Automatic annotation (TrEMBL):
Coiled coil: none annotated. It comes from Desulfobacter hydrogenophilus. This is protein-glutamate O-methyltransferase. PANTHER family: CHEMOTAXIS PROTEIN METHYLTRANSFERASE. The keyword S-adenosyl-L-methionine applies. The keyword Translocase does not apply. One of its GO terms (molecular function) is protein-glutamate O-methyltransferase activity. It is an enzyme of class 2 (transferase). SUPFAM superfamilies: Chemotaxis receptor methyltransferase CheR, N-terminal domain, S-adenosyl-L-methionine-dependent methyltransferases.
Amino acid sequence: MNSILFKPSELTELKALVYKTCGINLHEGKLELLKSKVAKRMRLTQMNVQEYLSYLRSNEREVIEFIDTITTNHSFFYRENKSIEYIVKQLGCHPKREVKRFKVWCAACSTGDEPYTAAVQLKALGVTFSILATDISHSVLEIAQKGIYKNDKVKQVPLSILHRYFQKGTGKYKGYLKIKKEIQQHITFKKYNLISDRIPGSDFDAVLCRNVMIYFNNQTSEAVVNKLYQSLGTDGFFAIGNAESLMNMKHPFKSVAGIPSLYIK
Ligand SMILES: C[S@@+](CC[C@H](N)C(=O)[O-])C[C@H]1O[C@@H](n2cnc3c(N)ncnc32)[C@H](O)[C@@H]1O
């Protein structure tokens, strides 16, 4: 249990540190969880609150590990696939399809379900592509790189795709599936902080930034959306989560008619 008493000023600093590092606004409910995590770490490191806060100030990784336990990394294959399906189709019939290697960026890829979802569909269509898949959290990127998932994560994957691009686990991997190398080789996983890192390029054909801005306030989301705009080439696609909206912010994107949460540069 959390037996350490935090002064209001210390909690405010903790909250500010999380906001500054990841752009995440912790509301009251989540604050209790954060307090208990911090208390546990303090007991382990035998630091007092002030020492621990000063350690956190220079240790982004430790802050991110807290965020991991507080935010959700929840994701699954073919989640909100309408926008991905549309992008894949457009790239598949792009006038430069025969000569171009398309570039996709999944900017909060979590455990990899999302970039692999895009990859299997692009591969099935015979499109030449590479995917940059990034996330702030080291632990989700490790899982993503392995590409091994419980069966229940792929429930929405069409059977033909499942048979073609996944290997069934046996023995201790019974109940798991592994993404095949021919898919993995198209994806590079990297740590990237949407708040503080520079865009990794300006010629992406599509950027997916889905179900992460729900944790940001409007001002932070607006800054992220405008930054991601710069990472797209002409006519590049921008997908957000179905529960997210660009409505209350200034941005230059045009929405794609009939496809919720999809925009074009
Ligand atoms: C709910 S998951 C979304 C995964 C996937 N995009 C989807 O829609 O299924 C949110 C992810 O955002 C990541 N995240 C949170 N803050 C971030 C930041 N500032 N920069 C990059 N990623 C961040 C979390 O680590 C988490 O993996």
